[in-house]
Automatic annotation (TrEMBL):
It comes from Halovivax cerinus. The chain crosses the membrane at residues 12-31, 103-124, 136-161, 207-226, 266-291, 311-337. It is found in: Cell membrane. It comes from the Archaea. PROSITE patterns: ABC_TM1. This is ABC transporter permease.
Length: 344
């Protein structure tokens, strides 16, 4: 099967999965306790006012009508309007996505930079102090709750030593990148006009300063998981015949480890990376709450507390779609890393 046919097939499957997510979320709205009208209406609201609010929100329609109208709106990019804010749900949800994506990607980068070298060192120095240290680090990382680690980092590095801020996100990565793009194209500047590199560096430094602790907190478990996976995969690959053949040809040990063994080890690592990245996007609620990070997880919790279902549905749809897209991308990368893996 060619790459094009594979992508078409997986896209159609992904559409069905997303449709299933939409349907499940809609059913959850129906069966969940609590009436959105009760949270919206004043405490002394009359029954007539409550009926009017329900009519304005379309909650007095039959369920199949509500479901059909919601699907029709989603096809057009309309997720409805927030019950509490009165703004388009798509505008609110997608406004929070960049913060969550930044946190998920940053924590993944932290995990990959630390875990793969640790796993390789642990595998190549088996039963040595380096191996024991990496194993102990993995055990601690998997066993440490994110919320406790986040609080400890705040108390020690932020409160005690004043090295990092405790919370919030004053700037995003797009703000730093926008410094260069804005100066280059705004106001009809010539091609050779100097760029405001100082503003870019300052904005990027601020972003890194604020995201360091949340990314470390969220990526600790991921780091430990990838370290253990890299170690076990490298041990398996280093014991195979093609590695012995490469060494017999006189190839340098570094080339054998990183060009051959590590490349084959990356296949299961990329699988876990794709799945965990989707999990980080949808499961960063605790970390976002600890650091007051204005992401999708915080928005979801806030909306659940007030039964703002358009926001809840939109958030869950975005999270489900991210899983589908990431899984498709991971499968497509298989053939690049290992040509023996087809697109079947």
């Amino acid at each position: 099967m060619s790459l094009g046919r594979f992508l078409v097939k997986r896209t159609l499957q992904g559409v069905l999965v997303v449709w299933g997510v939409i349907t499940v979320v809609f059913v959850l709205r129906v069966i969940s306790p609590g009436d959105p009208v009760t949270f919206i209406a004043p405490l002394d609201a009359s029954p007539e006012l409550k009926r009017r609010i329900a009519s304005d929100l379309g909650l007095d329609q039959p369920l199949y009508v509500q479901y059909g109208e919601y699907l029709a709106g989603l096809v057009q990019g309309d997720m409805g309007y927030s019950y509490r804010r009165g703004l388009p749900a798509s505008e609110i949800v997608f406004g929070r996505v960049p913060a969550t994506v930044e946190l998920a990607v940053a924590s993944s980068l932290v995990a990959m930079v630390l875990s793969i070298p640790l796993g390789v060192v642990a595998a190549t120095r088996r039963h040595e102090p380096a191996d024991y240290g990496a194993t102990l680090f993995s055990l601690l990382g998997i066993s440490t709750p994110n919320f406790w680690l986040g609080i400890m980092l705040i108390l020690v590095l932020s409160v005690q030593f004043d090295l990092f801020p405790t919370s919030t996100r004053p700037v995003g990565f797009a703000d730093a990148f926008g410094q260069l793009v804005w100066v280059r194209f705004e106001g009809g500047l010539s091609v050779g006009a100097p760029l405001d590199v100082g503003a870019f560096v300052e904005t990027l430094r601020t972003w890194l300063w604020y995201i360091a602790l949340p990314a470390t907190t969220l990526g600790t478990y991921f780091t430990a998981l990838i370290t253990r996976l890299t170690r076990s995969g490298m041990l398996d690959e280093l014991g195979k015949e093609y590695v012995d053949a490469a060494r017999a040809k006189g190839l340098p040990e570094t080339l054998v480890r990183y060009r051959h063994a590590l490349r084959n080890t990356l296949i299961p690592i990329i699988t876990v990376l794709g799945l965990q990245l989707g999990t980080l996007i949808g499961g960063a609620v605790i970390t976002e709450a600890v650091f007051a990070w204005p992401g999708l997880g915080t928005l979801l919790i806030e909306s659940i507390n007030v039964r703002d279902w358009p926001i809840i549905q939109g958030s869950l749809i975005v999270i489900g779609t991210s899983f589908v897209v990431l899984n498709t991308a991971v499968d497509a990368l298989y053939a690049y890393l290992n040509p023996q893996v087809g697109y079947e």
